[in-house]
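Question (not urgent): is this output format expected?
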Amino acid sequence: MVEECVQYEVVIRLLFDIFFSISQTPDTTGHIPSESEMFANFLDQVEKADDLGFGVGWVAQAHLSTEVQKRNKKPVVPHYPGEVGLCTDFFQVAQKMFSRTKRLEVGSAVMSILASGGPIPQAERIGSFLALHGMDPNETRKLHIGFSAGRFEFMARPYGIFPRDPVEEAAWPSLRGQIFAEASEIFLRLLNGEMISTDVISPTILKRENFRSDEDWMAVINTASQFYGVDNDSDSVLIKPRYIFEEIKTIPKEWRRDLLNLVLGSHDPKLQIEVNRWRPVQVFNLSITPPHIINETHDRMKENYHPDGGEWTREMMPRTVMIFVNDEPGLTDEERSNAAKEEARAALNTYWNALEGTIDPAKVERATDNAVIGNTQEVAEQIKERFHPDDRLMCWFDFFNHDSARVQRNMEAFMNKVAPAINGGTGE
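Got this back:
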């Protein structure tokens, strides 16, 4: 009797993407690679990520020199050494990534739609890119566009994102969030292929709910009374549009929208709902986000995700996690664990010192707590404890680490040992 061989499929649930910072900052030894070295290391790591089976390669985007902004009257990051990120044109980087890989999809984490000319040229660039990317009818790899207002204000100011009068000055930075909402609507409706003008875009109306305190709101009302003629007891202030234009429509028109996935980089619950009026837009969340916020976001998106995107699932909200794993040869598991902890301590201390005075200390503590640190077994256990089995993780390996060979070994250790330990096998 011949015994039938039954092959059981191992179901992989937790998904693994990878995050590339291309951050030209000193590592823990003080070494700063040249720009060409940074890009060469990045592309080597991209190819390695493709070989190892990571899902999406997410790339940080920044604009303008962080070093030069230190000379501004009010520098945003006065102590940050080097450059936050060398990716200033995501679409050129994305094309290079697609050309050098076979399976890896590509995403921006995140692209500012207030910089680089604003939402109109950004929408146009996406259409142009996907018109070319989608020329092959067999192409299935998506372009994932994470978009936001941008982390650092100095990167958007040259493009007109600054207070235009005393009322806007009093309302800033709450108003900046509303400008992003205006830009988002323009951006998404152009991506839909709509013909739009300023007249059809939702007006910017400030209300008490937009501000943290009664004092902040009253400061806006009092200033608006003086300069806009608004009544002191008014419950709203109308702000003139930031983007003023007659009817427009971007070209090319005929590009494959099935190859585009959009992800919002904002924690604003109202905005998460509003953007889904126009087309399916998913949400980013950092690993330092408190669990109750994560769960509230999933509940909200289940009810409000645009129906064209299908049913909302947890993998639609990528979560960043810093990976400090040590699987170096010639060490015991205990030695690897201790070495990983020292590496994490040095890298995180360098980072937090660079951001001194610019970030909430409580966020610093949460970020430290949420990094995964240790040998492969410890990292696997930490991820299983801290994340839902249906999550999608953006694994960050190059955090203040310019030793590209070591970064790639860490990537290998993660996908060959950590990932199978989490999911029970590779499914291959």
